[in-house]
Batch of 3 targets.
Target 1
Amino acid sequence: MAPVLRLGTRGSPLALAQAHQAVARLAAAHVELAAPGAIEIVPVRTSGDRITDRPLADIGGKALFTKEIEEALLDRRIDLAVHSLKDMETVLPQGLEIACCLPREDPRDALVALGSARRIADLAPGAVVGTSSVRRKAQLLAARPDLEIVPMRGNVGTRLQKLAAGECTATVLAAAGLNRLGRTDAAAALLDPADMLPAAGQGIIAIEARETDLRVRELLAAIDDEAASRAAAAERAVLAALGGTCRTPIAALATIAGSRLAIEAMVIELDGSAIWRAAREGPVIYMRAMGEDAGADLRARVRPGLIA
């Protein structure tokens, strides 16, 4: 049978695992999508997957993980796209929208280390830590200025292999990715957000659709997780207010308890020498306003020139 839906995704093991989660939820919610072959997964190789020897900030930023997939969506070669929300640009291409979010996985970062280190403080003096995330690098240096931070890109499996090969003594990965790949065992410790505030959207799978495609939007509305979507809206509002790029270390995390939302946001000097924080709490219905206010507060206080 011809597929009812064509679902675009990156081809990495983690991206495919996330795509299968989306398929399972859609199939459970809609009987017409439960038949074998009703949803076709269409892997799309992105520039971010092809270029792995340079930092993202030097070659175009996060859009390199979404550009080709979004082009396929606009060209109607696929009907929807599954992304890690933290990889999505703050401003989406005209005609596209985040139609739903799946339930959030653990948003924390995980320390993955050789030896017995269970905290950042446990790492040996001058330890080599591999990461290409400016957010993680800045927070690591804020806690431990003695650490040597070296670039390390690639999917989760590649980075674990590089660690095992001795290219570094530790790295920091998203707990959500490790959990979704069944590699929770690789984490030496989960890092408290007070010590390592996550990226905006970390742990959330977002599904993107065309604004005019009412059929797909209706199908996706049935699987939207309200808490994840509200947290996503608050955290992305911080990014929008800051207007930062992937060259600026920015972190944000919203938590929801009942009808209330609390959000913490942060901008950090690249070398970890200064940190600016903002926090807001209030009724969850004002999620975007709280995120915007926190972001505007930070933008007014950070060092001139830090945010492009």
Target 2
Amino acid sequence: MVIGIDVGGTTIKFGVIKLNGEIAFAKRIDTMQAAAAGITDAMIKEVKSIIAEFPEVEGIGIGFPGLVSKDRKSVILLPNVPGVANEEVVAKFKKELPKLIVKIENDAKCAALGELQFGEAKGMTDFLFISLGTGVGGGYICDKKLFLGSHGNATEVGHMYTPMEGKTVEQHLGLHQITEYAKNLAKDPAFATSDLSKQNINPKLIFEAATKGDKLALAVWEHVGKALGYGLISMMRFSDVNKFVIGGGVAGAFDFFIPQTEKTIRENLPAYYCDGIEFRKASDGENAGILGAASLIYHSYGDN
């Protein structure tokens, strides 16, 4: 068994994960409360409590929503978690729990490994994982190995620019940005009959409206698909990859935006890149974070 920890801006999730991906135990704590006490110290305290109940735990994998050091021992910066910068996470854990393997990684890259180890990408050799949630993250698996780049933080897909208003992928596809786009569309007289124009719009309502054929909702997801397509075009030119696994909260609307994503790609790339193109919806769902973090140990990733 291993412990997978998913550090988020709102909650920190803990899970005890078996080799087959079964979750034997799960718990979450408030991120802001943990930050007040020190994120790493708060996590160590929880892990000690978990190990008292599950002494067979062999290692700990931790996913962070930000930049980590090239040697995968320290967190450099977490934009959405205050007070965490240049934190020597692995050293602190090893001091308190010297017998356990401890590994850290960016959360989207963890999710990519999790899909490879436990989920939809099991058996695949090359694919790009895209996480669509509050922000947009990515993880590139090349020949069954995670591509890290020169300094360890490659594939920040969300920060790639698109030809759409000169904005980045994340500036179009973050949850807040999708909501704002829908609110602006709702002001257009062409969508006056939309049920969404009469509600306090949020992504969940946009998805539900799309299932009923609402034109405004469908237009929003078409916009999402187009922005994602432009982001993937750049990644395809760079990496030569044409297999994609889409995860995160926005992936629930997969069937509504992926057709436009593929259309945008095919309209802008030659057949070489598009032949055999494939999109899969991530299967780990709300447990993607802890399963991905656990896969750092089960996938024999790194050597910390």
Target 3
Amino acid sequence: MTTTPTPNLIARLRKRRAPLDLRPDEFRALGHHLVDQIADFLGSLPSRKVTPCEPVQSVRQLIDFNRSLPEQGTEPGPVLARIADQLFDHSLHNGHPRFWGYVTSSAAPIGALADFLASAVNPNAGGWKLAPLATEIEVQTIRWIAELIGYPSDCGGLLLSGGNMANFVGFLVGRRTKCGWDVRQAGMQAGAKQLRVYTSQETHTWIQKAADLFGLGTDAIVWVPVDGERRMDAAQLRSLIQKDRAAGLQPLMVAGTAGSVGTGAVDPLNEIADICAENDLWFHVDGAYGAFAAALPDASPDLRALSRADSVAMDPHKWLYAPLEAGCVLVRRRQLLLDTFSYHPPYYHFDPELTQFFDLGPQNSRGFRALKVWLALQQVGREGYVRMISDDIKLAGELYRILPDHPELERQTRGLSIVTFRYIPSDLRARCGDPDVEKSLDDLNREILDRLEASGEAFLSNAMVNGRFCLRLCIVNFRTSLEDIEALPPLIVRLGAEADWKRRGT
């Protein structure tokens, strides 16, 4: 509806000041106070509980969850200060030196400053003209990451939200490249044969999502058995490919893993690369967790074989300690990213010689994720990352070494910086393997994990190893020290004894 503007409206618009705007002095005051709060918070992390372990109703009460949208605005200072304190006091602190759950890292402080700066400038890193410096920084960051893990530095790649999206991009490039028809135009229904994707039983759930979302269906996944070290069995892989070909099916790709989520297992990537080359299959590696360990001087031959993959997914927000979100995919032949994602509608008028990230992945509008990774790479360099990743692995190894000093603790696996173990009361140790005893041990270790979380003294997760419920420690944490690691076994023994008293009814 069009109305004639009043003189008052014209005067207001001529000197417009929106409710969201802040004068430089206002912004400076808010920012200085917030930085002081954050600095104090970071300094207080070791003395805090890892998690407050609060019920959902308590969390909702903090923000008056059921209130309606405010009709009028309020001063930003008190709201900002209050929510900062609430986040500090009511969050799971993955920056705590005793946070060892999942594969979530302590975030580098420079990354927080980088996100602050990136948000202030707010470049759209989808196209070069929209974000010239941000685009070139991301291109350089991709090259540096490739150099760090020993991947060809002339590869293509981009930053995404995390491991799922990075793996999806590798999957889509492999599908388009190896399916044998123009899947972008004709769709999946044009294929004469059913496609098959091979991966180990330890692979993360991204593979089911990819097969589902991108038209293959989860029945297309062939789950390859693992060996005694929970690595893909290469001989079984070769046999399954031959069997499918003989049945008239079409093998498409193999998805290897460099650092499984459960135990840190690294698949025999060299053998898998040979099999893919022999069978003309796409070779993708999910290195979301472990790929950056390829930078270590003593990296295993299989980690070094990342360089042979057609595509690699990894997460800088894991072992580069970047704040969430920061995933990354590398593709050996950059042109294949363009072949998979590029479209040029009439309203796009960009110089084809410049990097246009909307041509290389699924997003058009993209945040400036690269800045936090780029700054941290410069702050510590290759040497700094090699030392921090190596220290994480050595600390996990030290836990694995000292576990037998505590008779109640049974170590299970060690891979990269992941250790799995479980608590076994002395009266049950001789009967391990009995189904009823194993169920009792599973229940007991679940109880220990719950008690540990409630205590806030440390944070672990769990893994199923050979059908057993195990406690799982994963160190991607530059704040963890040997003192922290040495404190864990006595803590588990104490909580285990408390849980066992409950089991016995005493």
